[in-house]
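User:
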Amino acid sequence: MIILDYKDTRPIYEQVADKLQKLIINGVLEPDSKMPSVRSLAMELSINPNTIQKAYGELERTGFLYTIKGRGNFVTYNEELYLLKKDEYKGKINKLLKEAEEIGISRDVMLEELRKGEERND
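Assistant: Predicted structure:
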């Protein structure tokens, strides 16, 4: 299920693409399964169909979807996409740790905060 955050500064299509990407990576949307039509997903989320089309286009560009003309959009998934996303998150964490160290917060304190956040989510 996709829940949009209207307080998020990112465009709606990016939020939709990001949520669908996570569903694909987590295996909720299985490889080669048909995606909902642009129109039906737009109605479900109460947003413009052009927004869904743009999100699907972004997912196709990044390799998470493929299109069969006249049949719709389908999930494509391979281990390489997962590893790329994993590397992206590692990069974000390392950047955050570096920025924290630059303002005097030790790496140990940041890692402890990550562990606390993990415990709260359990």
